[in-house]
Amino acid sequence: MHGMISRRATLIWCLRILGGTTLLALPFVFVPTAWMAAIHEWLGLGPFPPGPITEYLARSLSAFYAGGGVFSLLVSTNPERYRPAILLLAGASYPNIEPPGIWNRRRPRGD
Question: What is the average pLDDT score of the chain?
Answer without folding.
Answer: 84
